[in-house]
Amino acid sequence: MHDIKWIREHKAEFDRGLQRRGLPPQADSLIAIDERRRAAIQRAEAALGRRNAASREIGAAKRSNEEAAAQKLLEEIAHLKAELPKLQEEEKRISSELESALAQIPNLPLDDVPDGTDSVDNVERHRFGAKPSYPFAPKQHFELGEALEQMDFQTAAKLAGARFVVLKGGLARLERALGQFMLDLHTNEHGYTEVNPPLLVRDQVMYGTAQLPKFENDQFFAIRSWDWLKDALQQGEQVGVEAGPRFLSTLNSERLGLIPTAEVPLTNLVREEILEEATLPMRLCALTPCFRAEAGAAGKDTRGMIRQHQFTKVELVSITTPEESRDEHERMLSCAEEVLRRLDLHYRVMTLCTGDMGFAAQKTYDIEVWLPGQNAYREISSCSVCGEFQARRMQARFRSRENRQVRHVHTLNGSGVAVGRALIAVMENYQQQDGSIVVPRVLQPYMGAMKTIERSEGKRRTTEDA
Question: For the chain, how big is the Rg over CA atoms in Å?
């Protein structure tokens, strides 16, 4: 959420930032709404002030036995009393209009973000390792998993539809091992505090991290109760044109959103709080299931586990001061990279261009892991600094150590990393010619005695290291 006061004072800078995002200028239209809001506030305050003044004047008129003047003042007060709710409602309506307009506008890119329109314009920052070579044609993860009889998309489709998977045996354990390894790394070595947050959250929480209102179609929602609808239908109401607003209003109050990422509950832990600067930076992490409708992904990555409605991810969130947020962004990136370095996976880091960044981000680094089965790099982590964009929506602030000034915090989030995609990367990079999967050395303590995942009547089989 942008600050309308800042927009007023930096019109050209605001519109230039939107232009870099590929959007038209909007400062003038926003300021025009704010002018109407200010005028409405002034009218309401003037009416309230006049009502209070007239109330005082009545006493003076009565003390002077000026009954006609007192009666006239009473009539004026009655008129103002009837008018004030209308003026206050107008102010509320215009304020809501301004907030709604601001809520649809993305964050502005930092100066060092490369300009561009899509992923083609992203800039490589650095890379780690080298592409592995094989004496055979490497297979994709779903070919390997189905041949092992431990990755089942058909049964998942029977249970839940497309874009779900059932993992079994060694692959199920490998996914669990990856998540536990990442949590241990980030909490024991990187200083993050593990959190086990709710997977269902209120609309206000989704709004705070900017999933709502713009990306409502990308979310899954759970309805808490349909009793209100049953009662309405029994009373003869229809959910049609007239009842539509009531239906939508009640629907929103009766639903909870399934988190698309643990960024949502973790970042909102500080909503409507004023933190002491001494408690910052606050570094949080969580391993959770995530749920995404993938509304805009029709036809993309329909085979395999690349783009699922349900997946597991380790999320990193930092809450910090404006002065430290850029350094914290670099630190978060290095923490996410360390996961892939320990797994000895080749990857590259890309700085996203203005046209490819997420809605709430000021700057984003994507880590793209090499998948030999696809012969392509695929995103496995995205680390973003959001400035005060989310904090304004959440009213998350801190009190300065020196002058006790209250300011908005800066928020950052990143995947540390996507567990399902890490599973894909391990499978494709550690595959052997017979279709078995070598368990990376760093994961073996989490896998019991298992060092290789092989097909054996759907059960795991232990072999010794070569």
Answer: 28
- For 317, residues 6+ apart whose C-beta sits below 8 A from its C-beta are 262, 263, 266, 267, 283, 284, 285, 411, 412, 413
Q: Which two tokens stand for residue 171?
A: 């692959």
Question: Which amino acid, one-letter code, is at 294?
Answer: E
What are the helix (H) ranges across 209-311?
Answer: 227-234, 244-253, 263-267
Beta-strand pair 406-408/397-399: antiparallel
The CA-CA-CA angle for residues 362, 332, 373, to 5°, reads 95
First to last CA, the chain: 55
Residues of the chain where predicted confidence (pLDDT) is lower than 70: 225-226, 228-253, 295-299, 457-466
The number of angstroms, rounded, from the C-alpha of 455 to the middle of its chain's C-alpha atoms is 39
pLDDT at residue 463 in the model: 46
The letter for the amino acid at 330 is E
Q: Which bin fits 136, alpha (ψ -120 to 50), beta or left (φ > 0)?
A: beta
- What residues pair up with 369 in beta bridges, in sequence order? 347, 378
Cα three-residue angle 233-234-238, rounded to 5 degrees: 25
Report the b/e string of 343-363 with b at 16+ CB within 10 A.
bebbbbbbbbbbbbbebbbbb
DSSP-based three-state secondary structure for 81:
helix
Asked if 231 and 197 touch (Cβ cutoff 8 Å), the reply is no
The DSSP code for 2 is -
Fold of 119-219+260-453: BirA Bifunctional Protein; domain 2 (3.30.930)
Largest Cα span, the chain: 109
Domain positions in the chain are 4-103, 119-219+260-453
Cα–Cα distance for residue pair 432/295, rounded to 1 Å: 36
| pLDDT per residue as tens digits for the range 306-355 | 999 999 999 999 999 999 999 999 999 999 999 999 999 999 999 999 99
Task: Domain 4-103: give its CATH code.
Answer: 1.10.287.40
Between β-strands 166-167 and 151-152, what pairing exists: parallel, antiparallel or unpaired? antiparallel
Tell me the C-alpha distance between 331 and 354, whole Å: 22
> Residue 454: helix, strand or coil by DSSP?
coil
Q: In the numeric block, which tokens belong to residue 372?
A: 């030999």
